[in-house]
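Sequence, please.
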């Protein structure tokens, strides 16, 4: 029995938008919401993977997810994609800001263009997708926004300064949006994942020895995987967390 088996009845039929839903944690979240009976739309730049996910989930539950291919750095195109998803889904109750780009970079070589590009993937869309979705949440009488931050900015990681700054910024954004949107019955919370072993992480950064070393630093002595983010995200999206807003949940297996 895992979190993926828990039922959140208020998510059944709910309109949900997930950014970065084609791969990794986002794909696990898209599948989890679909299996709750939600009507899910997701945005991603990874076109083949997004289409493949839709095909894999076709018929798996009542509602097949809807995919919009978009580069979230293009705010106008993203706003239009959100409107198309809203048209396809009807009411929207949940937004999960999950998309990110965690390429490593060094203080000595980061250019202004690199910095701006990094923020335009990791921070800017969290604000502008929220801004585009909020009118739909208001129309629905309220809802939930779940932002994916990271413990990266708490760990003095030397090779991610722009990413870490963006992920810290997401906490500030979470708090501010929660304050502004609480009167509209819209809750805004953040999840800070620890080291989550995804295909991309294994392809680019995580060796078997690296995973072993990370697990050694965790209280929980097993690698964390994308599915470990499902429980916290469904909980923060559902009415089960109806009194929780402006909060952050660290889901890192107790990384020391
Ligand atoms: N995997 C981890 O160990 C870990 C740790 C801490 C935090 N997180 C956070 O959790 C979230 C998901 O992590 P993940 O490992 O699955 O991330 P990932 O990098 O594997 O996937 C993110 C998704 O965002 C999409 N994306 C990237 N740039 C985009 C763009 N310009 N426009 C549209 N889509 C774009 C990618 O195609 C991908 O499908 C991210 O916010 C990440 O920062 C992950």
């Amino acid at each position: 029995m895992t979190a993926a088996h828990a039922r959140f009845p208020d998510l059944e039929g709910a309109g949900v938008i997930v950014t970065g839903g084609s791969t990794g944690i986002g794909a696990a979240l898209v599948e989890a919401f679909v299996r709750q009976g939600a009507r899910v739309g997701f945005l991603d730049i990874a076109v083949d993977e997004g289409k493949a996910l839709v095909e894999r989930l076709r018929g798996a539950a009542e509602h097949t997810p809807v995919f919009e291919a978009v580069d979230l750095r293009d705010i106008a195109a993203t706003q239009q994609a959100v409107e198309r998803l809203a048209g396809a889904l009807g009411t929207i109750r949940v937004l999960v800001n999950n998309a990110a780009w965690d390429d490593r970079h060094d203080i000595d070589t980061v250019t202004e263009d690199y910095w701006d590009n990094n923020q335009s993937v990791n921070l800017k869309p969290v604000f502008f997708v929220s801004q585009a979705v909020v009118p739909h949440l208001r129309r629905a009488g309220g809802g939930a926004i779940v932002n994916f931050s990271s413990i990266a900015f708490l760990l003095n990681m030397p090779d991610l300064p722009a990413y870490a700054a963006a992920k810290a910024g997401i906490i500030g954004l979470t708090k501010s949006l929660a304050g502004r949107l609480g009167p509209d019955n819209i809750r805004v919370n953040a999840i800070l994942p620890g080291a989550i072993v995804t295909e991309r992480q294994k392809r680019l950064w995580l060796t078997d020895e690296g995973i072993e070393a990370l697990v050694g630093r965790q209280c929980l002595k097993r690698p964390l995987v994308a599915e470990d983010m499902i429980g916290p995200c469904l909980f923060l999206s559902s009415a089960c967390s109806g009194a929780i807003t402006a909060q952050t949940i660290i889901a890192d297996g107790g990384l020391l």
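The domain at 10-251 is CATH 3.40.50.720 (Rossmann fold).
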